[in-house]
Specification:
It contains 4 helices and 3 strands. By secondary structure, the protein is an alpha+beta fold. The protein has a 3-stranded mixed β-sheet with strand order 1-3-2, with helices on one face. The radius of gyration is 14 Å and the shape is globular. 27% of the residues are buried.
C-alpha cells in the first residue's frame, strides 16, 4: 500500500450488518467500506476506530479481508450452534487469523470510550444486547 485508499463509513441499524457484528469492513472496487451498528455517537466512533485500526494492521500483516470474513461467518455458525456465548468475540478466538490485530484495536476502542466518559461495563452490556437481538 503506497497510500491509504478511500475509506467510507456508515452507521447502520444492527440488523443491516452483513452478519452479527457491531463493526465490519469490506473492499468494494478500490474503496473500503466500514459499517458500524447504531449505538451512541461515542460508542459508534470507538467501534469505527477499532475497525479502522484492525483493518490497517491486517493490511500491514497481509491478512486478507476474505479470510477474516470467512472465519467470522464460520464462528457465527458456531455461536448459533451454542458453541459460544453472546458476549464472546470471534476476534478473541485463538483460531482467528486477525486475533493480535483485534486485541490491539480493542485496547484503542476502550481508550476512546474511557476518554469519552463511557462506562466500559455498560457499553459491553449494550453491545452484547445488540448481538443477542440480531435479526
Amino acid at each position: 500500500m503506497r497510500h491509504l485508499p478511500k475509506l467510507i463509513c456508515d452507521v447502520i441499524p444492527h440488523k443491516e450488518q452483513r452478519y452479527n457484528t457491531g463493526g465490519d469492513y469490506e473492499k468494494q472496487h478500490d474503496d473500503w467500506f466500514f459499517t458500524v451498528s447504531r449505538m451512541t455517537p461515542q460508542e459508534e466512533f470507538a467501534i469505527l476506530m477499532h475497525e479502522q485500526v484492525e483493518w490497517f494492521l491486517c493490511q500491514m500483516a497481509g491478512i486478507k479481508e476474505k479470510d477474516i470474513t470467512k472465519f467470522d461467518l464460520m464462528w457465527e455458525k458456531e455461536r448459533l450452534a451454542g458453541l459460544h456465548k453472546d458476549d464472546d468475540e470471534p476476534g478473541l478466538d485463538k483460531r482467528a487469523p486477525y486475533r493480535n490485530q483485534h486485541i490491539f484495536a480493542t485496547k484503542i476502542e476502550h481508550m476512546i470510550l474511557k476518554k469519552c466518559g463511557v462506562d466500559i461495563d455498560e457499553y459491553n452490556k449494550r453491545y452484547t444486547a445488540l448481538i443477542k437481538n440480531y435479526k
